Amino acid sequence: MEDVKTSSSRKIAIASGIGIAVAIAAFFSIGYAGLGLFPTQTNPEFGQIIGTVGESTPLQTSTQKKFSGSVNFDVPEFAKYRGSENAQINLVEFGDYQCPFCKRFFDQTEPQVMQEYVDSGKTKFYFLDVSIVGEDSLVLGQGSWCADEQGKYWEYHDYMYANQGEENSGWGTPEKVKFMVRNISGLDTDKFSQCLDSKKYELRSKQLTAFSQQIGLTGTPTMFVGTPEGGYIKITGAQPYEVYKKVIDAHLE
């Protein structure tokens, strides 16, 4: 995979157009458990920290595809991705490190998505942490950005999902996280611990939760497929690979 890079940040808006949202709606009407979805609750403490939400109509001069029910936003500037810088579309996952359905996606579906679409250069894959399961979710999210300071964002992401404990069982406390990262090769644990103790990324992790709710997150995992110009289709829950394939292929056509 190519080096992790960043994308620019712009305004959030709701887009209209034609497309496939209705075609996949049936997958998303069977309840949280059936969806493989950990439901979120709006936290007023976080507020609307990143951007604003409003209705708009895409520019008619754009050559990007438009899909009905899509949401337009740009990925935050600090976000990291896997894949080619020149990829045609983005896959933007919002996940909670404590969410069991996010782990299901990580174990069962993400490898296929990576192989077919990310490693092949067709798409970029972003992951952005949100904190909806409990207090330790916020700690784990901050840890990812502390690991990123040492170029270990994705190593941290993969290790934490591969070794996820039961939600709110205490496996994601600061001391437990500091202990776990000893297993990440090349990570300076002293620097990591200092970063985590400083809580320097607490606001960022809270901002990501607020941002996700602004663009329609109702639970985790949630994947947005598309582009800033053409809009993103939302896939909610740990859906089978075929669901992701259908939406991604529609954008690539």
Describe this protein's structure.
Strands 4-6-5-8-9 form a five-stranded mixed sheet, sandwiched between helices. It has a domain at 13-132 and 205-252: 3-Layer(aba) Sandwich (Glutaredoxin). The chain has helices spanning 21-24, 32-35, 100-118, 135-148, 153-162, 174-180, 189-198, 202-214, 241-252; strands at residues 13-14, 38-39, 71-72, 81-83, 89-95, 123-129, 219-220, 222-227, 231-236. The relative contact order is 0.23. The chain is of the alpha+beta class. It has nine helices and nine strands.
Helix-strand layout with pairing:
Layout: E1 13-14, H1 21-24, H2 32-35, E2 38-39, E3 71-72, E4 81-83, E5 89-95, H3 100-118, E6 123-129, H4 135-148, H5 153-162, H6 174-180, H7 189-198, H8 202-214, E7 219-220, E8 222-227, E9 231-236, H9 241-252
Parallel strand pairs: 5-6
Antiparallel strand pairs: 1-3, 2-7, 4-6, 5-8, 8-9
Helix pairs in contact: 3-9, 4-5, 4-7, 4-8
Biggest β-sheet: strands ordered side by side in the sheet: 4-6-5-8-9
- CATH architecture label of the domain at 13-132 and 205-252: 3-Layer(aba) Sandwich
Give average pLDDT, whole number: 81
Structural class: alpha+beta
- As a percent range, the share of helical residues equals 25-40%
- Name the beta content range: 5-15%
CATH topology of the domain at 13-132 and 205-252: the name is Glutaredoxin
Main β-sheet, in a few words? 5 strands, mixed
Query: With helices defined by DSSP (H or I, 4 residues minimum), what is the helix count?
Result: 9
Low-confidence parts, pLDDT < 50 over ≥5 residues?
1-35, 41-64
| Corresponding CATH superfamily of the domain at 13-132 and 205-252 | Glutaredoxin
Pfam families: Thioredoxin_4
GO molecular function, one term: oxidoreductase activity
InterPro entries: Thioredoxin-like_fold (IPR012336), Thioredoxin-like_sf (IPR036249), Thioredoxin_domain (IPR013766)
Domain Thioredoxin: 51-253
